[in-house]
Amino acid sequence: MPLAARRVFRLALTLALALAIGYGIPLPLPFMAPLFALFLASSPGPPLGPKALVGLVIVVIITLGVGLLLIPLLIDYAVSAVLIVAVGLFLSAFITLNLGKGLVGTLLTVGFTLISAAGTLDY
After folding, report:
1. Which residues contact 120 (CB under 8 A, 6 or more apart)?
2. What is the Cα–Cα distance from 66 to 12, expressed in whole angstroms?
3. Is the alpha carbon torsion for 93, 29, 40, 116 positive or negative?
4. CA–CA separation, 91 vs 108, rounded Å?
5. N- or C-end of the chain: fewer Cβ atoms within 10 A?
């Protein structure tokens, strides 16, 4: 099988597994799992090794965990938390544009905006 076909197969299998797992365990928004899988698996190149995979998991936990830490601030101190979100969005844009880390910037943006906004509705 040619290299391009293997990469397409790996991406399709990743998306299919993410969608099946998202609907298999009752996630509130199961269609978001393939989107995150697409962000993580769409970079061209060989599969990640164990050390790089651990680093990727740590980056995802930190970038998306920022939104969970902002939820109590948004509930109790709304003005200060909105200013922190604005600075965080500036930081994520800086990381994306100037440092060339698109995945980290995208996940930071999701962490600062979507997760914290969803958490204020239902913690």
Report:
1. 71, 74, 75
2. 29
3. positive
4. 9
5. N
Residue 105 one-letter amino acid = G
End-to-end CA distance of the chain: 47
* Helix (H) and strand (E) counts in the chain: 6, 0
Q: How far is 107 from 60, CA to CA, in rounded Å?
A: 7
| Phi, psi for 25 (deg, rounded to 5) | -95, 135
What is the tens place of the pLDDT at every residue in 8-25? Answer: 898 899 999 999 999 999
Predicted TM-score of the model (pTM): 0.73
In total, the chain counts a number of residues equal to 123
Nearest to 110 by CA among 59, 73, 76: 59
